[in-house]
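Q: What would this chain look like folded?
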Amino acid sequence: MKKKFFILTADSESNPARLEYFDSEKKYKNGQTAKRSIVIKSCFSINRKTDCKHKFVVAVYTNEDCFPIAFESEEELLKWFIPLLEIHLADKISEGEELKPIYEHVWQVTVQRKDLGSRKNILGPYRLCLNTTTRVLTLFKMPLSLPLELWEFPVMTIRRCGQTNHQFFMEMGRGAITGAGELIMELEEAAVAQNVHGAVLE
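A: My prediction, written as structure tokens:
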């Protein structure tokens, strides 16, 4: 994997805290423009990504896409992950509250044109997010824009769920916001679909 050079800038009167990356430290020192610059507080979520081939990955979810960053060790990952979370959650959590993402799990999914997807017009790209404290799954329509288009499903309203290859399905009970029926979602690969299934069943 080709290494990149990252800079985390602090909040200032003129600029909000940003994560910026360059092809190399040399290009940064030569004053070249960053290949990408992300305002941390405007991000949707910042999470550890556990369903990919690299073990130490932080996923920065913007309103448009996901920007993954791979690290060489747990120690190196935490040196970046904790400050990123502190900046991102500064206005969202109280002093002394546990520092963790609002959604512990975030997955990019494509809802299929079947059953509830078709009947309720829940189609195409969404973010599927799980809050493990409230045990609520939320589907956010992508790309994100205000007002947010979302569907919330308490895990207790799911009759059953499962995974086949790179698809994850949920059979909803009558108590769900959609009413009874099935939602089928396609993920990037089978390992990610397995990760969704395991997290929902926990």
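Residues 8 and 83 are 9 Å apart (CA to CA).
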